[in-house]
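Entry:
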Amino acid sequence: MWKLLSSPFRYPKIIDVNNNSEALRNTKKQRAKQTGATIKRIWSDLAVYKFVFVMVLIMVLISTTLALLGPYLIGKAIDSYIVTKQLDGLKNLLLGLVVVYVLYSLTLWLQNYWMIGIAQKTVYSMRSQLFRHFHKLPLSYFDKRQQGELMSRITNDIENVSSTLNSSVIQVFSSTLMLIGTIVVMVWLSPLLAFVTLFIIPAMFFGMKWITKRTGKLFKEQQKNLGSLNGYIQETISGQRIIKTFSQEKKVIRDFMEKNEQLKLSGFWSQTYSGLIPKLMNVLNNLSFAVIAGVGGILALKGSISIGVIVVFIEYSRQFTRPLNDLANQFNTLLSAVAGAERVFEVLDTQEESWDEGSRKELKSVKGEVEFRSVSFSYEKEAHTVKDLTFHVKPGSTVALVGPTGAGKTTVLHLLSRFYDCDRGSILLDGRDVNLYKRESVRRHMAFVLQDSFLFHGTIMENIRYGRLNASDHEVMEAARLANAHSFIMKLPKGYDTVLRQEGAGISQGQKQLLSIARAILADPSILILDEATSSIDTITELKIQEALQRLMKNRTSFVIAHRLNTIQNADLILVLHEGRIVERGSHEELLRKKGFYFDLYRSGRERDQ
């Protein structure tokens, strides 16, 4: 316990809520504004099902009325039938009580049934929107964020919203109506006793305000830490091979423990503060009971009220504090849901990749002529990755991009495929600026074979067909034959119906690459992009891949990135990049005769291979 209290987690900031600095006031205003906007946005999603929602509210109104009627009938039974010993009247009233509580249970069931349906449909819509939006975001968005953290938003955060909508919305309405109804009936029965009972409201109000002031940011911190932990777990599970290769298990466990400690502490303090609310309510509830019993007894002795009224007041006092308790608890739950919803809406509000493409055209066909005119680009401001690139590629030509790591080779291909747009200059495709066309239609005429071949969980047939979804089985198999993949596929237990585990686990890197080439062949692109397609492959498999790539590149404009320069000797044009600039260009023989930067790269590569 002492360790928790002495932890460096932001405990001093939590208790320092009376800081009156201008910065803190502005932060609070901004947070309140953001929270209000988030609640309003969730409410607008619920309003889509307004007819059913109105029916829920009607059921809440009926159930609240019945809940208020029950204690009144009990008081009536005491004063009118038990004290006077009228058994027949008591039987009829008890039958009425049974009917009231049966109807009360039925209305509770209906309102919960309908509200759960509304909540699940709303959350289903949010999750669908978020998943669709993920696939419309630019590549740069994913480059800057952990996969696990994004996964946490579509799972944990939305599930948090779901569990809150299932119960909290009804609870808030029901508790509010119950609170108002109880006060009205109590004042009607005995204004003096009602006034004495309601004296606890200020204590409840200030106690709840003190607690909820601290829990809001703690729940947000908890959701943030949960997302960070999920991201780290996903990253370390994916990188197990590297972790074990470099014997970094202790470091990974240590880092995990730090993140887990942060989550534990934020969860501890958020639950500790929110847990104070029911304790406070129980104390005030018992105090209220004592006051009613004492004052009511005195009034009864004086003949001001009856025994039945005291019994009704005791029951109503419980009903009075219960909705206050429920409202306080639901307020904390709502804060937690709002924190999750804010993280979801943050993604949904991120600009889509195609936000500026309203007037762009569809690219119908591509010959493959590519031209870069004075193209410059930077991932970060004032840190150019490529500078003033100018070159021209004829249709059907093969262009090789070579240079040291960080020279900008992959960036050139990102710009061509419009994963990023250039800062200055222009990129022409068949003589027209590539920015005139929609990104999706540009990429439709391109195929990529990358260093890390990504395969989805599914059959080999499905993974190859990913290149063209309407391809027949025969076309898929023909593409596999051209890629030199058919023979190894047929040796698998179920051939093309063999199910690959996630990311193609279970087959070799070379086999993954052959399947990627088959997928590219099936896509039948006009422009082919090969990014280190033969790296980390054994010699025999490399020969198969090279043969498959030659078939794939035939009559297509091809861009090839390769560190092993012996694989690009037949390229029509070799562009040598260094620090984002083209320092040399020409064929393999021409560049060797110059004995410049390319010559040094080639010679050092041959020495390394030897």
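Residues 1-21, 23-29 have pLDDT under 50 and may be disordered.
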